[in-house]
Amino acid sequence: MDLLKHLVAVCGLNLAIAVGLAAFGTHSLANHLSSSALETYRTGGLYHQLHGLGALLAAFFSAKIGVVPSILLLTGTLVFGGSLYLLAITGVRWLGAITPIGGVCLISGYIVLAYRGGRIATQ
Known about the structure:
Layout: H1 2-29, H2 35-60, H3 62-65, H4 68-90, H5 99-121
């Protein structure tokens, strides 16, 4: 149960950071980034929030399905959203090459969640 508490806490902190970064982007970056860069930042924020919720949901089921889905989703969120945040702010284009790695983690996390959750549902 300690692992579950820690995982839920990390997921909650992740979502708090997502809200903070969204507010920062809206209030502090809107006048400093191009519309394209701001859209990239917002995409990172959207993925951060949505998949942060996915990781939290997986965490609640971790006692039955394990922690792998949550870890993959948190990792994917960090890499995908983080690379887009940094790309938008810095303009360093090679960061866009890292983004798909986060996407693969996200997809993998949902596949593991579906597989393990489906196996439990049929028992």
